Amino acid sequence: MALTLNLVGDPEADAxxxxxxxxxxxxxxxxxxxxxxxxFAGPKKLDDRLGGLDVHKVAEMNPDDFxxxxxxxxxxxxxxxxxxxxxxxxCAYIAEHYDGDTAAIWTSGDPDGKEVLKRLKALPGYGxxxxxxxxxxxxxxxxxxxxxxREAAGSYGDEGSRRSIADVVDRQTLLEVRExxxxxxxxxxxxxxx
Length: 194
Fold this sequence. Notes:
CATH architecture: Orthogonal Bundle
Number of strands: 0
Low-confidence stretches: none
């Protein structure tokens, strides 16, 4: 992956996300209950603290030690224990099912968009929505565009949309995505109140 991302707004954190598929997958995993850019800054914190991100190393670390690394200020996520456990589960799954090769999730066997989505949904901590957003991120910004990826990503794959982190390329698009999310939450809240 030789490209430029602007998901965090920090050149070093964004460079790591652009160059390391595991970092990008962990950033997406962390993207809940915190601002998007905070979530995607998490992998750089781990990379710095562990001397590099390695699937096998993370998977095999003592869970308490890994959680301590996640909790070290500034914490990797506002819920360092539960998210630390999820990161370790994710790494263990990749080690077991993909021999530690994160990119194999979207490259092994030349999968189509539907298959990549299925593989992403099978990852610990990845539900349907998170998997669709990540597939859209791969297609829109990483250049991973298997046949049918836009359809598999659903509305997150729509050209020109501002629905998720997949659409963030600069400060302005970050604000547009944030506005979309706030409007969607308000609409959902209003619908519940009826």
